[in-house]
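Re: [ENG-882] Designed sequences occasionally contain unexpected residues at chain ends

Forwarding the minimal case from QA. Structure tokens:
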């Protein structure tokens, strides 16, 4: 009898606990915030989305009423909105389960040079009585570029397969998402003639020193000279490897633990993690054609299509194969010769002019065309690469390494960044002000300062004792802090960070 009573009591406690958990979800206020308090447009922009973020998914459908006031602008003449706001308010619909909502600002005219033209949108009322305004209850949309003051950003990396790399610009609060499998190599538009590999796709490359005939190299070819390299054996111990044929070389070319290299001799089949011009797998392209040799490229790995289990990632699919490439330059343009590795009859040739507006011009070897990847060099600050690979040293293991949740900054575009570690008298993120900025700490020659250090890979949590300070090319200062790398449903590949202009 006593056992029965105890069992019933335990069952009752479980029911109460379960109910308490469900009710606890309802105790979280449903608040609505603008994603950013400032949104700027350029002369070329004809529309821009204005986003509203929710504190939790909507448990019921409803409508948010947005009011607006205009400065030197009239509705219907200078701007409109979608949904329509001619009445003076905009009704933004929210469906059950939505995490956010948005409306579109349509710009019909530009501001006259030297004048100010803007529209301020404010969260008005709700048709759900328990919905509330958050701290960011208004947003100013400018007809001209202005530096964004703050915001909370949910990245568009695309989920557990991390199909996209994302470029973010703090001053315009703009993110640009690009599939990471759209390009393999990119060409530097500065004074040096450099070729970069796509680290988000794990592309690697090796030079066939002394060989200028692209069609003479196939998998069956002998190397002009044997290569003395280092690999890992089955026990993950380094061992010397002498490679005398292309087929042998292919065994250790793809990025992975068993990738060949020799850092003591300066041999790496990937670009370095820092992203310096001197650290590319390709030698600097000479303007003397006979000095530019053939390279064999491993094209990296396919992006898987099957989502990973909740809380996990799946970023590496099948190997994409190999191609051979030779690059020439006259100093103002690049000429790319490329073909399948087995091809002996003909090759493709494309010439790409340098474009000073961009750090790099990306090229797809599989499609034979230039690809729009990076925004203008002064219109992005960080790259949420998602996946990042290089040959290097990790805890004494020298091998081809691949990371997830990786973040880079725009060193080629003169963006500086440093990490703040909270210890001792160091201010917390919320207390950090412009007076705390250390000008000497900014790093302009290592794009991987953030890397994956913003999260604890082993415990699956955000690293709460670090945040970052950034100085953009226009001299604006920002602090930013990562707050999540999962969706509310627990899916990986959804990064979130908050930022504020100092």
């Amino acid at each position: 009898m006593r056992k029965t009573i105890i069992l019933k009591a335990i069952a009752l406690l479980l029911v109460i606990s379960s109910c308490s958990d469900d009710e606890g979800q309802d105790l979280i206020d449903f608040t609505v915030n603008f994603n950013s308090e400032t949104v700027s447009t350029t002369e070329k922009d004809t529309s821009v989305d204005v986003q509203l973020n929710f504190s939790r998914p909507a448990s019921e459908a409803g409508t948010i009423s947005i009011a607006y006031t205009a400065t030197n602008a009239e509705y219907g003449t200078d701007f409109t909105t979608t949904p329509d706001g001619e009445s003076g308010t905009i009704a933004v619909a929210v469906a059950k389960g939505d995490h956010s909502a948005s409306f579109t600002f349509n710009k019909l005219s530009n501001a006259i040079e030297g004048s100010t033209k803007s529209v301020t949108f404010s969260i008005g009322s709700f048709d759900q009585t328990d919905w509330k305004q958050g701290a960011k209850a208004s947003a100013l949309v400018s007809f001209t570029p202005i530096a964004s003051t703050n915001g909370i950003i949910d990245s568009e990396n695309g989920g557990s397969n991390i199909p996209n790399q994302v470029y973010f610009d703090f001053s315009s609060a703009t993110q640009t998402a690009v599939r990471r499998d759209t390009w393999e190599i990119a060409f530097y538009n500065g004074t040096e003639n450099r070729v970069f590999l796509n680290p988000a796709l794990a592309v690697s490359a090796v030079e066939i020193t002394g060989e200028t005939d692209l069609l003479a190299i196939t998998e069956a070819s002998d190397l002009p000279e044997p290569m003395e390299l280092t690999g890992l054996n089955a026990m993950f111990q380094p061992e010397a490897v002498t490679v005398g044929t292309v087929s042998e070389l292919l065994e250790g070319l793809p990025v992975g633990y068993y990738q060949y290299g020799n850092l003591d001799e300066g041999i790496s089949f990937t670009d370095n993690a820092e992203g310096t011009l001197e650290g590319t797998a390709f030698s600097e392209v000479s303007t003397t054609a006979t000095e530019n040799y053939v390279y064999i490229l491993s094209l990296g790995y396919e992006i898987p299509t099957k989502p990973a289990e909740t809380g996990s990632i799946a970023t590496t699919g099948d190997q994409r194969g190999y191609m051979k490439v030779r690059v020439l330059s006259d100093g103002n343009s690049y000429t790319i010769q490329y073909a399948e590795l087995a091809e002996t009859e003909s090759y493709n040739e494309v010439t790409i002019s340098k474009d000073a507006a961009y750090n790099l011009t990306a090229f797809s070897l599989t499609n034979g065309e230039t690809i729009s990847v990076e925004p203008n060099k002064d219109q992005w600050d960080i790259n949420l690469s998602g996946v990042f690979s290089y040959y290097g040293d990790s805890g004494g293991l020298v091998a081809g390494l691949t990371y997830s949740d990786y973040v880079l900054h725009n060193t080629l575009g003169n963006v500086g960044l440093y990490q703040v570690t909270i210890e001792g008298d160091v201010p917390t993120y919320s207390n950090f002000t412009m007076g705390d900025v250390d000008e000497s700490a900014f790093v302009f020659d290592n794009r991987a300062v953030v890397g994956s250090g913003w999260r604890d890979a082993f415990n699956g949590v955000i690293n709460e004792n670090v945040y970052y300070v950034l100085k953009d090319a226009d001299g604006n200062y920002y602090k930013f802090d990562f707050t999540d790398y999962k969706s509310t449903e627990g899916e990986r590949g959804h990064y979130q960070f908050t930022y504020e202009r100092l």
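QA comment: On inspection the terminal residues look reasonable. Confidence is low (pLDDT under 50) at residues 1-26. Proposing we downgrade this to a documentation issue.
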